[in-house]
Amino acid sequence: MTTIEQPAAAPGTTTGAGTTTTAASPPATVVPRRPTAPAGQQRRRIGGMRRTDVLAVLGALAAGAATTGVLWTQLGPFTGILGYVVVTWLVTVAWFALLVSFDENRPVVKDRIAAFVVHSLGIVLFGALVFVIIYTFKRGGPALPHLNFYTQDLRSTGPQDALTKGGVLHAIAGTLIELGIALGIAVPLGLLAAVYLHEVPGRFSRFVRTVVEAMTALPDIIAGLFIYATLIIIFHLGPSGLAAGAALGLTILPIIIRAADVVLRLMPGSLKEASYALGSGQWRTTWHVLLPTARSGLATAVILGAARAIGETSPVLLTASATGYINLDPLHGPMMSLPLLAYTLVASPEPNEITRGFGAAAVLLILVLVLFIVARTIGGRAPGDLSGRQIRRRELSSLRTARRFTHHEEHLSTELLSTEEWKEEPR
Amino acid sequence: MSSDLLDRAPRGGEPPVAAAQPRRRLAVNAGAADRLFRGTARGGGILVLLLMALVGGFLTYRAWLALRTAGFSFITTQEWSPGGGSFGIAAIMVGTILIAIVAIATAVPMALGTALYISEYAPRWLRRTLIAMVDLMAAVPSVVYGLWGFFLLQWRVVGLSRWISDWFGWIPIFKVDGVARHDPLATATAYTSSTFAAGLVVSLMVAPIACSVMREAFGQAPAGEREGAYALGATRWGMIRSVVLPFGRGAVIGGTMLGLGRALGETIAVVMIISPRFVIQPHILQNGTSSVSSLIALRYGESSPFSISALMAAGVSLFVLTLAVNFIAAQVVARSRSGAVSEA
Q1: For chain A, which end, N or C, has fewer CB atoms within 10 Å of the first or last residue's CB respectively?
Q2: Which residue of A has its CA nearest to B312?
Q3: Are residues B99 and A264 in contact, defined by beta-carbon separation less than 8 angstroms?
Q4: Which distant-in-sequence residues (6+ apart) come within 8 Å of B313 by Cβ?
Q5: Distance (Å, rounded) from C-alpha A374 to C-alpha A306?
Q6: CATH at B131
Q7: Burial of B306: CB neighbours in 10 Å, binned 0-12, 13-18, 19+
Q8: At CA B133, angle to CA B129 and CA B137, rounded to 5?
Q9: CA dist B231 → B218, B225, B234, B235 (Å)
Q10: Domain ranges in chain A?
């Protein structure tokens, strides 16, 4: 909190000054009276919460809930929990402003209201995320503990069969195959293009960057439609894993390029300049300095692209038809994937099918979470900022190099000079 | 640039004499490996550009068949029956834009609040976790949001919709036809599958994208100016209003536009919630609307080549719209002060 709490008027100040004057006899010269350092003065608190802040929030919440409760039950024909929460929030803000205005001035009241609004907006967004995830797991929960859910496909499972029969293995396999194809297309091309944008500056590469940035929000369904119109209608490939992978790759290509470009741009220029100063060319600098230094950031870019690709439904919907059979051949036949399975299953009126659909969504969510955690663990560090393990690995490798050099020179020295001093010299 | 200047200009010669020294050539004399590398990189860039151009060009080419037949009526017709010869994007485009507007109107306050919370209010130890959570939220599959919206939100939102339409029904967009005001027996299905419900679900997908753009800019607001504001006696909110928000204004607009681009193209969650209806539906609380991407997802299986190319025409019009929105977003972010700092 920025508002500075007034300290209680320190009692030490007055008493301290009083004792010095009475003790002195009439002096010849007037010594300027110095106020002694007040003994009992407390350090000012310039941050933290006061009890009144907490009480004001709690009081406003209680008053808001109560006022809205009266409105809802007694006065108006209001219904619905969501409406209750929204109105409670609005009323609470008003009560809070009133409460704070009792003992603060206008700028402080504004500050408090802004803090209240900002906090509650943040809570709403994070709360929604947690709620969405918990809801998915709760609805899909009954399907998840059965082992057959992960080891069988749906080829012989009817809509009314119990959850102990049938599973999502075919969708997991299809998702992984399609993801592999998408990454196989998007990662090499995307990284090459990002290196191009970074290493070969000029008008043309600026143009490419603008186009790529604009394509980042290429609607995924249009990527699907493009692949549908080319591979499936013109080249008669048929709905297949390859087509789905290509559509996903096209969707995430601009995303990977953009993220990788940002990572490369954040690289400290001094590293590159040092490499040039040591006489290496552009290719060696890129391969031995730029890419290894940016590796964790680039890996994060790729994994976030993968997380996006794994969850896209609409390109897959157009390019790989739904099936209940497991299909490991990306060239022929329809291939199921998790988002498509969830989308297909919940359209059924049977409760077991809906539970299976939520179960598929939960498995998908777990895959995304795993990818995300991997991305956070290996990435998220600035270039050159190494983890403990990386530092140890570098130390080991430099120790090995040093040993090799010593060995080499020992060899040379015994061969050419054959003196004993070289062996003693620590290298 | 730096590579050009730092190239090995004096290759193996004697140290130059000071008086008769000729001007050094500072241009690159790149080796074969460097030339090959640059050629490959340029090839990659050109390939990406070609791919993007191919997507646009091919869709436009295929859409041309339908556009030529429909002519100007493509923009004004509401219904969608390419088999019967009359189809147009009037209804679906209005639906798409309305859903995107509802999504943005809900998402931007949430994104702005969360971005400010993370960059200004949250304790330092919590910040990294919160940033990771926002990124995670952007990575949650749209089908998961769709499930949530379809099974839970659209039923919970009925009460709120009814309340808004009862009290604010005199504003045209909040009107719901066929339901009397304060009618306790009114069926709930008049309010489900609406633009409002779809927009709310899309807003949850859009908010994290806008939020991370805004947060990055807010975090870069110069510390000197923040401290200056505090030194002049500003409260925290005063500091935010006079330093952080003006500094991040470009990012706020740019993040909003990026979110808008995503909201316009969102498919699966919208398909799951709305019930398709091909008339202009200006009442956002009422059941039944349509959007370009959901139209494509529902009708792509149609067998006749002509209806496919009609769908492509719709796709191209959506593509043009999102492209324009994204270009504007990129321009705004690049020109703002916050964008200039992050370029460095």
Answers
A1: C
A2: A225
A3: no
A4: B63, B66, B67, B70, B74, B89
A5: 12
A6: 1.10.3720.10
A7: middle
A8: 175
A9: 20, 10, 7, 10
A10: 51-140, 152-384
Instruction: Give me the residues of chain A with pLDDT under 50, please.
Output: 1-23, 422, 425, 427
| Contact residues on chain B for A343, CB-CB shorter than 8 A | 143, 146, 268, 272
Choose among A308, A137, A331, A136: nearest CA to A235.
A331
Residue B159 inside a domain? The answer is: yes
Q: Work out the percent of chain B whose per-residue pLDDT is above 70.
A: 83
Distance from CA of A416 to the nearest CA of B (A): 28
CATH class entry, domain A152-384: mainly alpha
Nearest Cα neighbor of A313 from B175, B297, B14, B285 is: B297
**Structural domain that includes position B99:** 51-335
Residues of B in contact with A207 (CB under 8 A): 49
CB contact under 8 A, B135 and A372: yes
Domain count for chain B, please give it: 1
Lowest mean pLDDT among A165-169, A256-260, B181-185, B280-284: B181-185
Residue B216 domain flag:
yes
- Token duo for residue A342: 């969830």
Place of tokens 């570098």: A394
CB of B31 within 8 Å of any CB in chain A?
yes
Residue B5 has a pLDDT of: 44
Give the integer Cα–Cα distance in Å for B209 and B119. Answer: 16
In angstroms, what CA-CA distances link A352 with A7, A161, A170, B102? 65, 7, 18, 34
Q: DSSP characters for A336-391?
A: --HHHHHHHHTTSS-HHHHHHHHHHHHHHHHHHHHHHHHHHHHSSS-TT---HHHH
B41: in domain: no
> How far apart are the C-alpha atoms of A355 and A142, rounded to whole Å?
7
Tell me what ipTM this predicted complex has.
0.77
What tokens does A171 get? Answer: 């969708």
Taking CA–CA distances from A193, the nearest residue in chain B reads: B45
> B341 falls in which pLDDT band (50, 70, 90)?
very low
Token pair recorded at residue A104: 């603060």
Cα separation, A67 vs A52, in Å, equals: 22
Residue B94 one-letter amino acid: V
In a domain, residue B183? The reply is yes
What is the rounded distance in angstroms from the CA atom of residue A216 to the CA atom of residue A212? Answer: 6
**Residue ranges of E strands in B42-114:** 80-81, 86-87
Closest by Cα among B287, B126, B58 to B194: B287
Locate the chain A residue with the closest alpha carbon to B118.
A122
